[in-house]
């Protein structure tokens, strides 16, 4: 069947994962505890709300709903201050090479992200026009590792799940792709992403031959 490609955003197309990390770390520090990069692995691909729940568990802090909402807001404002300075130079190396190849070959492409900030980020780095659909945190009710985000993306591009190829940097995202019966490609550390069907350190390691095989061309 016809193949389609689904890309995660943070940590795959752009390195906004580092800005999420900084904003969570700033909040943790303000609340009197530290937050390490290792702990941040569990935040990748996970909804903003779930991240704050985990952060507060790490700090041993319990709060009421109003305080929770306020810290969510504060973290996002801090994150957006990093995003405001982004431009196309922050697209990860060799991502345009792969996106351009797929576009030239008319392969359907979707974005599948947990982020509620996905569209403004794609606009900032000038990649919005590449995607036939953007399925983001505003459209999804169940966060990764639930497969909902990728199943909606597959439906939008009219490609059956088993013919979808998902690029993901998060453990939760690889789990979501696998349970949707899609082909999972991990971007990052093979030790962390051991559940992925294929793993590459980054896009510079991806040969166009590999992409051609996946697209059947
Ligand atoms: P926001 P992805 C995810 O994006 C991030 O990996 C995750 O760390 C973040 O908490 C989530 O988006 C929500 O983002 O606060 O911008 O709505 O990796 O699924 O593209
Ligand atoms: Mg990600």
From TrEMBL:
<dbReference type="Pfam" id="PF00702">
    <property type="entry name" value="Hydrolase"/>
</dbReference>
<feature type="site" description="Important for catalytic activity and assists the phosphoryl transfer reaction to Asp8 by balancing charge and orienting the reacting groups">
    <location>
        <position position="144"/>
    </location>
</feature>
<comment type="similarity">
    <text>Belongs to the HAD-like hydrolase superfamily. CbbY/CbbZ/Gph/YieH family.</text>
</comment>
<keyword id="KW-0413">Isomerase</keyword>
<feature type="binding site">
    <location>
        <position position="75"/>
    </location>
    <ligand>
        <name>substrate</name>
    </ligand>
</feature>
<dbReference type="InterPro" id="IPR010972">
    <property type="entry name" value="Beta-PGM"/>
</dbReference>
<protein>
    <submittedName>
        <fullName>Beta-phosphoglucomutase</fullName>
        <ecNumber>5.4.2.6</ecNumber>
    </submittedName>
</protein>
<dbReference type="InterPro" id="IPR036412">
    <property type="entry name" value="HAD-like_sf"/>
</dbReference>
<dbReference type="InterPro" id="IPR023198">
    <property type="entry name" value="PGP-like_dom2"/>
</dbReference>
<dbReference type="InterPro" id="IPR010976">
    <property type="entry name" value="B-phosphoglucomutase_hydrolase"/>
</dbReference>
<feature type="binding site">
    <location>
        <begin position="8"/>
        <end position="10"/>
    </location>
    <ligand>
        <name>substrate</name>
    </ligand>
</feature>
<feature type="active site" description="Proton donor/acceptor">
    <location>
        <position position="10"/>
    </location>
</feature>
<dbReference type="GO" id="GO:0008801">
    <property type="term" value="F:beta-phosphoglucomutase activity"/>
</dbReference>
<keyword id="KW-0460">Magnesium</keyword>
<dbReference type="GO" id="GO:0005975">
    <property type="term" value="P:carbohydrate metabolic process"/>
</dbReference>
<dbReference type="GO" id="GO:0000287">
    <property type="term" value="F:magnesium ion binding"/>
</dbReference>
<feature type="binding site">
    <location>
        <position position="144"/>
    </location>
    <ligand>
        <name>substrate</name>
    </ligand>
</feature>
<feature type="binding site">
    <location>
        <position position="10"/>
    </location>
    <ligand>
        <name>Mg(2+)</name>
    </ligand>
</feature>
<dbReference type="InterPro" id="IPR006439">
    <property type="entry name" value="HAD-SF_hydro_IA"/>
</dbReference>
<feature type="site" description="Important for catalytic activity and assists the phosphoryl transfer reaction to Asp8 by balancing charge and orienting the reacting groups">
    <location>
        <position position="113"/>
    </location>
</feature>
<dbReference type="InterPro" id="IPR023214">
    <property type="entry name" value="HAD_sf"/>
</dbReference>
<keyword id="KW-0479">Metal-binding</keyword>
<feature type="binding site">
    <location>
        <begin position="113"/>
        <end position="117"/>
    </location>
    <ligand>
        <name>substrate</name>
    </ligand>
</feature>
<feature type="active site" description="Nucleophile">
    <location>
        <position position="8"/>
    </location>
</feature>
<feature type="binding site">
    <location>
        <position position="168"/>
    </location>
    <ligand>
        <name>Mg(2+)</name>
    </ligand>
</feature>
<feature type="binding site">
    <location>
        <position position="169"/>
    </location>
    <ligand>
        <name>Mg(2+)</name>
    </ligand>
</feature>
<feature type="binding site">
    <location>
        <position position="24"/>
    </location>
    <ligand>
        <name>substrate</name>
    </ligand>
</feature>
<feature type="binding site">
    <location>
        <position position="8"/>
    </location>
    <ligand>
        <name>Mg(2+)</name>
    </ligand>
</feature>
């Amino acid at each position: 069947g016809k193949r389609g490609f689904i890309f995660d955003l943070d940590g795959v197309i752009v390195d906004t994962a580092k800005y999420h990390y900084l904003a969570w770390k700033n909040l943790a520090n303000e609340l009197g505890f530290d937050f390490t990069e290792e702990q941040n692995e569990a935040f990748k691909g996970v909804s903003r709300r779930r991240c704050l729940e985990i952060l507060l568990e790490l700090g041993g802090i319990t709060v009421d709903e109003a305080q929770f909402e306020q810290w969510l807001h504060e973290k996002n404002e801090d994150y957006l201050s990093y995003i405001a300075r982004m431009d196309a130079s922050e697209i990860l190396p060799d991502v345009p090479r792969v996106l351009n190849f797929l576009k030239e070959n008319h392969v359907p492409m979707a974005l599948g992200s947990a982020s509620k900030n996905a569209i403004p980020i794609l606009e900032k780095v000038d990649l919005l026009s590449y995607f036939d659909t953007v399925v983001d945190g505003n459209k999804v009710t169940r966060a990764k590792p639930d497969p909902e985000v990728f199943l909606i993306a597959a439906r939008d591009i009219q490609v059956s799940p088993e013919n979808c190829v998902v690029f993901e940097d998060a453990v939760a995202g690889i789990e979501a792709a696998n349970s949707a019966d899609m082909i999972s490609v991990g971007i990052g550390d093979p030790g962390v992403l051991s559940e992925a069907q294929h793993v590459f350190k980054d896009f510079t390691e991806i040969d166009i031959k590999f992409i051609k095989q996946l697209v059947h061309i």
